[in-house]
Amino acid sequence: MFSKILFPIIRALELLTLIPIWGMLAWFVHQYEENNSSVPARILVLFIASLVATFWAIVSFFQFHHSIGISMLVFIVDMLILGGLIAGVVFLRDIRNEDCSTLSVPVGIRYGDDEWSWDNGEGWSANIEKRCMMLKSAWALGIVDCVLFFISAFLALLIYRRNERVAVRRKGYVVEDRRPVRRRGWF
Question: What is the per-residue pLDDT for 169?
């Protein structure tokens, strides 16, 4: 019962983190297309994996509560999408060591009558590189989605294992009923 309630919540979180990924990476695809150059594989792999994952998350979010019998299919497809997302994260792994922002602040220290100060002449300034931050954000959200898809695959497997065999004890015998249980209501 707990896994049936937790599954839609995890799916909603997946959708909330997948949409920004392909939104940011679509900007890169558009920029490369405007310049008539090919999109690098490191961007394209995560972009395609996130698009497929978004489509699957929407479909399974709305279909899962209708039929629990598709839970094994959800497990298999979630594991395949997890592999695609891992591949996208691995392709973008070079961005993890990049420094995407610089911050300079004037330092002024006063202790008693003595005063030490250092000023770079510019005062406060912050510089954020948009391209680097967008790639790093997509990479980080891809890692989050890998964890979420693993959790949802595990929940789908738990639901499948629970509903696989309904054992009924009658007069000392175990009768296996493999028919899907059709329930009315939300769960």
Answer: 42
Q: Which long-range contacts (CB under 8 A, 24 or more apart) does 164-170 make?
A: none
CA 151 from centre of chain = 11
What whole-number distance in Å separates Cα of residue 48 and Cα of residue 18?
11
In three-state secondary structure terms, 109 is: strand
| pLDDT digit string, tens, across residues 66-101 | 666 688 888 999 999 999 999 999 999 999 888 888
Helix (H, G, I), strand (E, B) or coil at 121: coil
Structure confidence by residue, pLDDT tens digits, 151-165: 999 998 888 776 655
pLDDT value at 187 more than 60: no
22 vs 63, 126, 130, CA distance in Å? 23, 27, 16
CB 115 within 8 A of CB 142: no
Containing 98, the helix (H) or strand (E) segment is: none
Residues in the chain: 187
Burial letters 30-44, b for 16+ CB under 10 A, else e? eeeeeeeeeeeebbb
